[in-house]
Amino acid sequence: MKKVSFAAFGGPDVLHLIDAEKPHAGPGRIRVRVRAAGVNPVDWRIREGQVLGAHPVELPSGVGLDAAGVVDEVGEGVDGVAVGDHVFGEGSDTYAEFAVLSAWALMPEGLTFEEAAGYPSVVETALRVLREVGVRPGQTLLVNGASGGVGSAVLQIARDRGVAVIGTAGAANQEYLRGLGALATTYGDGWVERVRLLGRVDAALDLAGSGVLAELVELTGDPRKVVTIADLGAPEFGVRFSGVAGSVPDALAEAAALIARGRLHIPVERSYSLAEAAAAHIDSRAGHTRGRRVVIV
User: What is the pTM of this model?
Assistant: First the structure.
């Protein structure tokens, strides 16, 4: 099978498309014929060697955590899924023709493989940070970097729970945020005052890592009301850094329910082939995403 791999940490040029043996589904796992794989910032952070504590890597290594595909092998002890089922979930080395998943759910009806691949890690992260920041119905949540995959999920899930949302993003994504039910404003000089004009901020999430934690603490009045997934300087400001995943199966089940109810939709901004994995990482690292990026297999 074809698989994207890297033998040394570094830039996108370390990624290579290679021939590899198919993996097999061990106990409690399934193997899928991958149809699409999600592109997440953690993918290039792992490739650069940034997040080895949370995701230990043995070189050479494959790439990717999220996938959607067709089940073709079921491991011992697995119930509720069969060969031929269409699933989306999380595993390892998903930029490949075949991958093993450790958590999965049946794909909601009407969802394409390309769309489904963009949900697993994104929705788990969104649900986790909403829980950790403790925002309640009737309150207002500020989301810095709101137009990407996690931001898109956060805005929709928060609105479904009765939380008002303010989102910051680039000028080109203002209408996109408003379409997700958020009050929107741009980055840049004067952004704090623009947020104040939109209303009180009860809690804030930093999804972009753009060096605004001090301002988010100022806006909320309490560092305990701010959570970041992208700024490693969080402890300096008394802010919580969220980097350890919660229950992926529970997140997938909630994602499937939200999608089925028409309460969650994350568009695919761009898709790439396996051979274009380096370009996918370059674009992901540059940010300014509207929705999700995926690799089509």
Answer: 0.91
